[in-house]
């Protein structure tokens, strides 16, 4: 007889991690993947009007999932909790209730039922790198670099991007900004190099990664220290999910050990590292042309 798993997300954001929970639930629950499970996904807090395309995507890809709430379940996973929720979490050892925290704190780490999205926790973590259409990569004639996330909430060090765009290069490229908000004022002068894809719905947002070559997290320990000790920068999951090259600093690479990276040391040499990624793209493209002759 099948067991029942109820997955909830008590907010209309962070839908991008839900598919990974659906695929990796057995890792979180520490159960055999062969155990038959009926998955229930409660969408009442997802603001279905805003996330209709996400819900339709999951329905089409995972038709056996039941989109309803149930009080009669064997396992439970809440996809979004924070330290402020600590008092409401089940703290019993071997509980069948699990929680995905989007931050790491000392008291959350005392709860064995809390899981994290980054190895910064040193325990109980998964990568939320199962993302829409990741097998449908497109080939672009020029390298497209993506910056994802909120464009206007200081989530990225735009000074790093300015350092890149202030330089002249032998090769052509584009920078694609994908996220909520508008084009920041300091980037207006670079508009000829920028593709702006802002305020998109879930599916359209994720389709913008399909022709990307490299992702730019645009953070350093000096400007965004929380991403180096207690929070995930979601660029990591997008790099993993869409198999993108990643231009990051040494500190971030030591945490995530990504397969395809170009390392910069600080703001002063990021344009040099960027040049190396350009050269790699065009060298590989030329090699392909020669092989096809």
For the structure shown, list the relevant keywords.
alpha/beta, five-stranded parallel sheet, globular, 293 residues, Rossmann fold, six-stranded parallel sheet, single chain
Spatial strand order of the main sheet = 8-7-6-9-10-11
In N-to-C order, the SSE pattern is EHEHEEEEHEEHEHEHEH
Task: State the total count of DSSP E strands.
Answer: 11
Class per helix and strand makeup: alpha/beta
Organism: viral metagenome
Protein name: Glycosyl transferase family 1 domain-containing protein
Describe the structure.
The chain is α/β, with parallel strands linked by helices and 293 residues long. It has 2 domains: 3-121; 144-291, Glycogen Phosphorylase B (Rossmann fold, 3-Layer(aba) Sandwich). Helix content is 25%, strand content 18%. It has 7 helices and 11 strands. The mean pLDDT is 94.
Helix/strand layout:
Layout: E1 3-8, H1 18-29, E2 37-42, H2 52-61, E3 75-81, E4 97-101, E5 114-116, E6 144-148, H3 158-165, E7 174-179, E8 194-198, H4 202-207, E9 214-215, H5 235-241, E10 245-249, H6 250-256, E11 261-264, H7 270-291
Parallel strand pairs: 1-2, 1-3, 3-4, 4-5, 6-7, 6-9, 7-8, 9-10, 10-11
Summarize the structure.
The protein is built from seven helices and eleven strands.
């Amino acid at each position: 007889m099948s067991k029942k798993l109820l997955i909830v997300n008590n907010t209309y954001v962070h839908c991008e991690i839900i598919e990974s929970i659906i695929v990796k639930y057995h890792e979180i629950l520490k159960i055999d993947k062969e155990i038959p499970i009926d998955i229930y996904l409660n969408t009442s807090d997802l603001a279905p009007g805003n996330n209709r395309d996400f819900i339709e995507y999951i329905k089409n890809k995972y038709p056996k999932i039941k989109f309803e709430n149930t009080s009669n379940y064997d396992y439970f996973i809440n996809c979004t909790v924070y330290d402020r929720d600590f008092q409401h979490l089940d703290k019993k050892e071997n509980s069948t209730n699990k929680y995905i925290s989007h931050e790491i704190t000392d008291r959350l780490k005392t709860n064995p039922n809390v899981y994290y999205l980054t190895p910064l926790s040193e325990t109980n973590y998964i990568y939320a790198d199962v993302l829409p259409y990741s097998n449908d990569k497109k080939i672009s004639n020029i390298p497209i670099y993506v910056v994802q996330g909120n464009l206007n909430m200081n989530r990225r060090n735009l000074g790093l991007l300015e350092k890149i765009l202030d330089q002249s290069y032998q090769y052509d490229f584009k920078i694609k900004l994908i996220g909520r908000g508008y084009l920041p004022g300091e980037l207006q002068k670079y508009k000829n190099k920028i593709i702006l894809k802002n305020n998109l719905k879930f599916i359209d947002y994720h389709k913008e990664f399909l022709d990307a070559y490299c992702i730019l997290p645009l953070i350093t320990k000096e400007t965004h220290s929380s991403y180096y000790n207690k929070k995930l920068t979601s660029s990591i999951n997008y790099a993993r999910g869409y198999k993108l090259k990643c231009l990051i600093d040494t500190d971030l690479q030591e945490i995530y050990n990504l397969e395809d990276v170009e390392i910069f040391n600080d703001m002063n040499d990021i344009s040099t590292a960027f040049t190396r990624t350009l050269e790699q793209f065009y060298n590989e493209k030329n090699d392909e042309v020669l092989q096809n002759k």
